[in-house]
Amino acid sequence: MSYKIKSRIWIESNNNVLLGEGRVHLLKAIQKTGSLSKAAKSLNISYKKAWQLLDSVNKSAKKPVTINSIGGKGGGGAELTEYGHSLINAFDEINKNCWAFLDQQLDKIKQL
Amino acid sequence: MSYKIKSRIWIESNNNVLLGEGRVHLLKAIQKTGSLSKAAKSLNISYKKAWQLLDSVNKSAKKPVTINSIGGKGGGGAELTEYGHSLINAFDEINKNCWAFLDQQLDKIKQL
DNA sequence: TTACGTTATATCCATGCAAATATAGCGAAT
DNA sequence: ATTCGCTATATTTGCATGGATATAACGTAA
């Protein structure tokens, strides 16, 4: 009924998106499923889109965020690096803090 | 070269977007030009898009944000209400505060 | 009463983006 | 050797979004 404030934050590295909400979702799904194709299915996005997202993350990050293996037992897979874990944790924390901050700012609008 | 954090915030009213960056730009241009069609031209967007944006703002706001007049001297025009002025000022301030807040949070990522 | 410049709205069309589809390449296991 | 399930890509197809265009409605001023 009343006003709500929403936000979307993301992190860029030399003008490319490194991390955003969608990319974090994808990384978490990879962590859970152990493969990019299963992660894509669980998020109801096409494998192509998932691959493009992951590719852009790994290309713009300082260190690799996932290790992808082709072939081998089970056909391959993808798993998060330690750096990848740290990134998504930090992003989640910042995002949560941002929501709290904005909710408090919203009063300025409600008072009008 | 290093990571940057960016954000986009917006305000919703019963699941409709009330105010965002684009809508604030449009309202400021209306304030400057005195008409919706001139504002659209100055922002290089079609009149149709500008009208849709303004219409959705006025439909989801508690009080009118602009007064639009059809016909009359000069064919008509649009001008901000006092409530409209207050809204864009509050939005700008919140946005600026948000940037400052996020820049400070970014350190958590840089330290990884 | 006619002309004007605007708001307001419908319709058509092109363009781009995303999904679907297809296919190649890989390496371990059998 | 062959199969399997995945990563990695190119190509086509479909759909939605937005732009262009057209036009109605309006009220003041001449």
TrEMBL record, chains A, B:
InterPro entries: Molybdate_resp_trans_reg, WH-like_DNA-bd_sf, WH_DNA-bd_sf. It comes from the Bacteria. Gene3D superfamilies: Winged helix-like DNA-binding domain superfamily/Winged helix DNA-binding domain (1.10.10.10). This is LysR family transcriptional regulator. It comes from Seonamhaeicola sediminis.
